[in-house]
Amino acid sequence: MKQLSGLDSAFLDLEDDHQFLHVSQLLILRRPDDPDFEPHPVWRRQLADRLHQLEPLRRRLVEVPFGLDHPYWINDPDFDLDFHVRRSAVPPPGSDDDLDELVGRLVAAPMDRDHPLWVSHVIEGLSDDRFAILTMIHHSTIDGAAGADLLELMLDDVPDAESPSHAGEWEAEPPPSTAGVLARAAANGLRRPARGLLLAARAGQSVARASRNPAVIDLADRVRGSLRGPLGSLLNAGRERDPEQDLPRLPPLVTPPTPFNAPVSRYRRFAHRALPLAEVKAVGKEAGATINDVVVALCAGGLRHWLLERGELPDRPLTAMIPVSLREGGEDEQWTNRVSATVAALPTDVEDPVERLRVAHDGLRVAKQVFAALPGELSPDAAGLGVPATVTAVSRALTRWSAVAPAPFNTVVSNVPGPREPLYLGGATMTHYIPVSAIADPVGLNITVQSYVDELDIGLLACAELLPDLHDLADAVVGEFDALRDAVRDGG
Fold first, then answer.
1. Which of 149, 212, 263, 338 has its C-alpha lying 20 to 30 A from 311's C-alpha?
2. Are 439 and 448 in contact (CB under 8 A)?
3. Percent of the chain at pLDDT exceeding 70
């Protein structure tokens, strides 16, 4: 039995009847030259053989009475693989647009919390002898980086691989007693104030350095210094001390209004596109920029053109929340959320594509420096400090308030590295690994990019009522790459 972290629990608390927080993967595969190949039974058998390696797929929630503590995961004693692996199909002609429409409908539903929090749809009927697999896993279970790791365990690195050793061998767990989880909640409640004091001192040091206030720095150092005895040693077990450093400052960011910054409905629209990864790398290298810089510049350019066509381009640049993985490798717990975020300007106010890339590069550089210096790595720990029932109430109140308050940022832009080698399901070759993320009030647009072998797959998810023409925006993002590539080659 494992307890959810505070950040894991927050993804549960933020859900309601129109916000569904799944981390989803859309895989497109090419059928093998085998007339007897049936995707659904092959995929079901593949997962059954690997359940002993796929912990997030076999565990379900155990709630603590009255919300006195964060829930727990147990290996589901009533696990039913047929409940989770489902069969779907697109209508003829089976185009990518047909697939996108189906995906938008499938992700617009909550997970059943009486079962492990995932569902996988095998989607048939695609043109060109293809099929797709849409796997939705709740964000309380994994983050994007862990999802990429999970995918590599679900598939094979060679065609027609043999079943792994110990295939299907795992043990279910009986649900704990109410008295047992309440006793754990009481013990955790006693430790929570001490952990909060330590985290506050560590955060105070970093924030004070950012303001270069010697008095506040000294106070934070004194508070933390008082925790360097037995209590500090206990609470700081396994943690490195924060280095002394001066912090850069972000320029002031103002979030202008857009058509997609409003309360979201429960309906979703999805669009996907792909770019050749080698060309994206080449454009970035020639311009002295990273892949992430190029991704942000493409999103900014696509949004600029989309908003211009509607006469709604703000004078100020849009802002984007950019998730930042905190994984360094070797974490004690792989299947949890280790993610924070920073906010950066999207240069939608810059007309020239090469200049837009330069501004994106400079903005991301400063945002990374600020994130590296501020205590962003504490966010997963800080999310677990409050009494869970109170945190839930506050989270829901903030969600309601966000429906009328200005958006903290305009959109989410995320770039997740994916597998570099091809993956297979039986004799079927995976050709695309498309991310399908989540949206929440009042940010009705998410653009996530995932690399896979020689492709850069782009997934856009939006509120269907706020962005009914999401495919136009997807085309604008791809068109921006063409414009940027040509401009860079011409000397910008």
1. 263
2. no
3. 80
Beta bridge partners of 318: 346
Q: How many CA atoms lie within 13 A of 181 on its CB side?
A: 22
Question: What are the φ and ψ backbone dihedral angles of 65, each rounded to 5 degrees?
Answer: -55, 140
Active site residue 139: yes
State how far Cα 11 lies from the chain centre: 11
> Whole-angstrom Cα distance, residue 14 to residue 19?
8
Partners of 341 in the beta sheet?
323
Tokens 């007897």 correspond to 36
Instruction: Look up residue 92 and give its amino acid.
Output: P
List beta partners, residue 413.
Answer: 447
- Least Cα distance to 461 among 259, 293, 260 occurs for 260
- Which residue in the block uniquely carries the two structure tokens 């997609």? 260
Q: Domain limits of the chain?
A: 268-412+459-489
Dihedral-angle region of residue 303 (phi above 0 means left; psi in -120 to 50 means alpha; beta otherwise)? alpha
| CB-side neighbour CA atoms (13 Å) of 361 | 14
> Do the strands 59-62 and 130-138 form a parallel or antiparallel pair, or are they unpaired?
unpaired
Give yes or no for a contact between 5 and 82, defined as CB atoms under 8 angstroms apart.
no
- Mean pLDDT for the chain? 85
Q: What gap in Å lies between CA 469 and CA 467, rounded to an integer? A: 5
Q: How far is CA 19 from CA 147, 207, 383, in A?
A: 20, 32, 20
What confidence tens digit (pLDDT) does each residue in 161-185 have? 888 888 878 999 999 988 888 888 7
325: exposed, middle or buried (Cβ count in 10 Å: 0-12, 13-18, 19+): middle
Tell me the three-class secondary structure of 236-273, residue by residue. CCCCCCCCCCCCCCCCCCCCCCCCCCCCCCCCEEEEEE
Q: In this structure, what token pair is assigned to residue 479?
A: 């068109």
What digits encode the pLDDT tens for the residues 446-458? Answer: 999 999 999 999 9
Q: Are the C-beta atoms of residues 464 and 262 closer than 8 Å to each other? A: no
77 upstream amide cis, omega within 30 of 0 = no
Q: What whole-number distance in Å separates Cα of residue 257 and Cα of residue 402?
A: 14
What is the pairing mode between strands 424-425 and 428-436?
antiparallel
Identified catalytic residue from 139, 305, 432, 471: 139
Helix (H) or strand (E) holding 430: strand 428-436
Q: Which residues contact 177 (CB under 8 A, 6 or more apart)?
A: none
Q: Tokens representing 399?
A: 């969600």
Angle (CA) 15 17 18, round 5°? 85
What would the two tokens of residue 309 be? 């066509």
Which residue matches tokens 């109140």? Answer: 397
DSSP string, 50-80: HTTT-HHHHEEEEPPGGG-S--EEEE-TT--
Whole-prediction pTM value?
0.85
Name, in order, each residue with C-beta under 8 angstroms of 330's C-beta and a sequence gap of 6 or more.
none
Four-CA torsion 149, 154, 155, 161, nearest 10 degrees: 130
In contact, 445 and 411? CB cutoff 8 Å: yes
